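step: validate -> pass
step: tokenize input -> pass
step: predict -> running
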Amino acid sequence: MTKKIFVILTVLFVTLFLGSSVFATNALEDGVKDMGTEVKDSWDKMSGTVQNAGNNIKGAMNTMGNSIKGTTESMGNSMKDAAQSMGDTMRDVMDGNDGYEATRTSSMNNTNSGLFGMNSTAWTWLILAVLAVAIGGLVWYYGAQNTNNSRNK
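step: predict -> pass
step: emit ->
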């Protein structure tokens, strides 16, 4: 009797396990299909997001590049204009005076005479001559006075 119960239970368990494995296999197969679809959909969404981000970065880089290009072109044009202006000025100076007139301010200029028609050099020599005569006169006067005082004693 125990053998019969054991055989019946064994057949029942085997049947139960085989049936459940078929159900599990179907459920597993459906789950894998669903998971594959979800992964594909997620991948499509992610690739779209990454592509949009790439396009945004590309646009920002193009804008920055254009801005830098414009700035450097502007600086280059400014430097070119400044160099052209300096070159024009130098050419004007080398070719002619470009309207520049210098006025001589030396004291030796005959058209700009000093006091009484004498320049500063003449006045310097005149003052030195007068001082030399005055010093000579003072030396002679003191020498003569010392001689007179010595004789009168």
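step: describe -> The chain is about 80% helix and 0% strand.
step: cleanup -> pass
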